[in-house]
Amino acid sequence: MEKQTGQRPGDLDGVDPPESLFYLWGWFCQLHGQRSGNGFGPNGISFSELDAWGRLTDTALTPFDVDTLIALDRAYLESHAKSQQDKN
Length: 88
Known about the structure:
With about 90 residues, the protein is an all-alpha fold. The chain is about 60% helix and about 0% strand. It has helices spanning about 1-5, 20-35, 45-55, 65-85.
């Protein structure tokens, strides 16, 4: 967001996650890079996309991993929607 808008959303200023969870951020970035859109904005990452990604990358996702990736996706979508509202 900061690169696109030149402004750093305050939501990005927070506590750094433990290093033991950095793998989830890398996974989220891979999934985000393949995100589709619908003409009105980005689509959320679906369970079927998580499943396909896990199979294609031979990554065994735990329920915790899925919950965290969905939470990261929700946070991204909310932040994106807010940035679009702020532009209008």
